[in-house]
Amino acid sequence: MNLIAAIAGLAAAQIAVGANVQSVFQSDQRASPPNILFVITDDQDLELGSVSYTPRIAKHLRDQGTFFRNHFVTTSLCCPSRVSLWTGRQAHNTNVTDVNPPYGGYPKFVERGFNENFLPVWLQDAGYNTYYTGKLFNSHTIENYHSPHVKGFNGSDFLLDPYTYSYRNSTYQRNHDPPVSHEGKHTTDVITGKALGFLEDALEGDRPFFLTVAPVAPHSNIDPGVLQGGRVTMTAPIPLMRHEHLFEDVKVPRTDNFNPDNPSGVSWIRGLPQQNQTVVDYNDHFYRSRLRALQGVDELVDSLVARLEESDQLDNTYIIYTSDNGFHIGQHRLPPGKTCGFEEDIRVPLFVRGPGVPAGQVEDAVTTHIDLAPTFFQLAGLPARQDFDGTAIPVTPDLDGTRHVHEHVTVEYWGRGVAEGFFSDVGGSPSVGIKIEQQRLTQFHTGPDGASMIPNNTYKSVRLLGEGYNLYYSVWCNNEHELYDLSTDSYQLHNLYPSNTRVTEEPQILGRSLSQAINRLDALLLVLKSCQGATCIDPWGVLQPADSIRSLQDALDEQYDGLYDNQPQVSFDWCDAGYIIEAEGPQTPLTSRHGISWDVWV
Q1: Which residues are catalytic?
Q2: For residue 58, which of 359, 368, 286 has the smallest C-alpha distance?
């Protein structure tokens, strides 16, 4: 057993013991286990202000619950993010890193053995009735839905590809029945009916329930039968007819990073041309369409809360609302999409309401999607699994002392970035008929689903928030680097990472030089890029097991300069489309075992 495995095993055992104690305490104090209603939207932004346009969600969840404003995804792409959420594991541990085979999608989820070993299966084993409706994973299709059927649910009604994102031509597949087309009906109305039906089933059951409702809004619309130039296209989402007239004057927030004069980022982003007025107008149209599409979700949540209230189960039900990843529109000159490590893509809404959850509170704790499965376990009174890479979120004050607080988020991505949108979508006019940015962004090329692709978008990064610092550090597969200090550069326009072409006065971070801060950040990322279990939760303990180091501020003490000056650097040997360990460069950091001494792990 190597050192990292030993540390992981010891820390995991300690976490598990604490969770078992908490489980016993909860079972003694609670008359019956709580119900859990989980609502997960698709591609919903936080940074662009979408939550300000959903008044019913604000009324029921924000005002009656807690808003976790520092909640992050660990991969800004739907299928990898969802698999991480359902397993509590980083994408480098699930090895589901894309939306389609061979590196992702439902077939990869099955191949990796998760169909028998993920959250709904665990909750069923713990005595919960489990239900699901809406989108589960990409590449879950009308051809493979029974090869095998998804396990873990007492009742399910899944959206299936290639109709998952077709707002007016969706196909759902209930339990083990054949798929059913809902052509002509809006998918949000369809899922609302199905969600209320499963909630009725859950309320009639004799066990606590876990119900997931996963609408596709505000994801782009994809009609597989509609081709432009022989390609399937990703266009703006389609709202319900009763919402089409809303927000006519609303525009994408004109923040400093919206279509900036002087862009930042790695080379493929920094080299994007500034968008002309036609593209800016299109971005505004796309943004309004997303807000309109979310109105159906707002009504869906309202109807679910109303039914819980009627049933007298609202006070015994935790309601969790989030999204699989964020979204950008025009920031850093980017066309609509996700897949980047910028705040718009990785920071998402998280609202929690339920027994003991403070009402109207805003929580600053750093939380991530891999913390959600441990949180569901804790709410259900279950001990944490040792393979969880995350830790339970303190959704109630009495749980705060049971959580290992972390300052970091590991964000990772492999393969191509995706550019969404289509100029002919503006105003419903088909006359333009060219792919968004296609004529100007020559570095993009067309992927199998017709979307514009960015071939080099593989990176590892760490997002850090602590007392006196607010940082983002990334290393790309072509070995470009980014460092943003969001305390002074909230829109990530000034890359602080030293380059041969920049000659500026070197800034300081927490009173130390930029180079010393980078040494610590890079070593931290070296641990996190291949961490497992408890080492993902306490990476500083891996680097300095003999010292009381719990934060960047602790690690920046000058007595540790020798350790961090000599660390191997995070790098890639080549760019690849998936998690290929041979391409990932150094895997093992140096560790300090006795004060300032250091040696190589074996």
Answers
A1: 78
A2: 359
